[in-house]
Amino acid sequence: MIGEFEYLLIAATHRLGEDAYGASIRREVEEATERPCSIGSLYTTLDRLEAKGLVRTWMGEATAQRGGRAKRMVSVTAKGIESASAFYRAISRVSRDISWEAQCP
Question: SS3 sequence, the chain?
Answer without folding.
Answer: CCCHHHHHHHHHHHHHHHHCEHHHHHHHHHHHHCCCCCHHHHHHHHHHHHHCCCEEEEEEEECHHHCCCEEEEEEECHHHHHHHHHHHHHHHHHHCCCCCCCCCC
